[in-house]
Amino acid sequence: MKVAILAGGHGTRLAEETEITAKPMVEIGGRPILWHIMKLYSAQGFGEFVVAVGYRGETIKRYFVDYARLDGSMTVDVAHGSVEQHDRVADEWIIHLVDTGQETQTGGRIKRLERWVGSEPFMVTYGDGVADVDLKDLLRFHREHGRIATVTAVRPPARFGGLVFDGDLVAEFTEKPQIGEGWINGGFLVFEPAIFEYLHDDRTVLEADALEQLAEERQLVAYKHERFWQCMDTLRDKRLLESLWESGEAPWKLW
């Protein structure tokens, strides 16, 4: 199953970092948060990624080209211009880096990935959040409910928006101040190919347009994740993630 990662936004609330790089390339423990997200997926058996790039997308492309070429030891024959690699321990990833536009909205970016993800169910997440989600259990939950979309619901600080439930179904998806039980969309979604019928053009917002409509049609269920989740939305968030990584007890390190 392929994993689509939304990595094209401007990250304006991290302007100190994102003036020169894409937000998913902001580092935690010397590695981009995008790398951390991909590691937690691949640790659970999901190793093919379709990354929707946009703002500063060249920094993401350059990182993975170098990541593939510079892993392990090497012998450089300067006179003949040859490079021989040794002891490579690179992750067994296949990464499709897809330009999805500078100003495209979240739903529009996924729409542009349609030919890359094919006609099978696929996973989606944002390029700025980590969690200790059991992805195989999430997939089991999605299949059992037989709906078009599953969102992972998490309990964040109150400054975020919320989800309102009707059993396991999402009755309302809102970006308004936190309401009800205080759950929000934490990413780590699973979609059936029918999702593309709800994504119309570059202006489609995944959350406000597609997920709202799916909730109204009772086609959106929520997998409740009660353990660790943290996005990197501000410098304060980045410092928190850094401190967890440096402590050696980062909850999202499943590898």
Notes on the structure:
Helix content is 28%, strand content 27%. It is globular, with a radius of gyration of 19 Å. It has 255 residues and is an alpha/beta fold. The strands form 5 sheets. Strands 1, 4, 7, 8, 10, 13, 14 and 15 form an 8-stranded mixed beta sheet that branches. Strands 2-3 form a two-stranded antiparallel ribbon. Helix 4 crosses helix 7. A hairpin with a 2-residue loop joins strand 11 and strand 12. It has 8 helices and 16 strands. The longest helix has 13 residues. The model has no long low-confidence stretch (mean pLDDT 91).
User: What's the alpha carbon Rg, rounded to whole Å?
Assistant: 19 Å
Ends distance: 19 Å
- The fraction of residues in strands falls at 25-35%
Structural class: alpha/beta
Q: Main sheet, how many strands, which sense, barrel?
A: 8 strands, mixed
Low-confidence stretches: none
Count the beta strands: 16
Order of SSEs: EHEEHEHEEEHHEEHEEEEEHEEH
- Quick check: average pLDDT? 91
Morphology: globular
Secondary structure tally, helices: 8
Helix content: 25-40%
